[in-house]
Amino acid sequence: MTEGPIPSAGPHLGRVTSFDQKRGLGTVHDDTTGAEFAFHATAIADGSRRIEEKTRVVFTVAPGHLGRYEAPALIPACAASDSPA
User: Fold this and answer.
1) Helix (H, G, I), strand (E, B) or coil at 80
2) What is the pLDDT along the chain (85 residues), one digit of tens a residue?
3) Could you identify which of 17, 24, 74, 80 might form a hypothetical disulfide with 41, taking C-beta atoms 3.0 to 4.6 angstroms apart as the criterion?
4) Would residue 71 count as lying in a domain?
5) Residue 2 lies in a domain
6) Over the Cα atoms of the chain, what is R_g?
7) Is the dihedral of CA 4, 5, 6, 7 positive or negative?
């Protein structure tokens, strides 16, 4: 079951708060709501499956495993601003 209000799909702006490269699991902090969402390395849009803690990112939110919301797509904020409009 989901706790708290249902978040919008996004896009959201935040910062990577943790990332375990061996397990491929991390968390991202939403700057607007203060919520934290889990993500898997496959969600990193550049395909590298690596991201540094404290990296600013643009991300989306969707229902995930165990009834929790997670971030299924993350783009480093500098890469998001470089993409054509």
Assistant:
1) helix
2) 345 667 888 899 999 999 999 999 999 999 999 999 999 999 999 889 999 999 999 999 999 988 899 999 999 987 655 554 4
3) 24
4) yes
5) no
6) 12
7) negative
Task: Copy the structure tokens of residue 85.
Answer: 């409009």
Give burial (CB, 10 Å; 0-12/13-18/19+) of 20: exposed
Residues whose CB is less than 8 angstroms from the CB of residue 83 and which lie 6 or more positions away in sequence, other chains included? none
Considering its fold, how many domains does the chain have in total?
Answer: 1
Contact 43, 72 (CB under 8 A): yes
Buried b (16+ CB within 10 A) or exposed e, 70-82: bbbbbbbbeebee
CA distance 70 to 60: 8
Beta bridge mates, 70:
38, 62
**The one-letter amino acid at 75:** I
Q: What is the pLDDT of residue 23?
A: 96
Overall pTM surpassing 0.70 (yes/no): yes
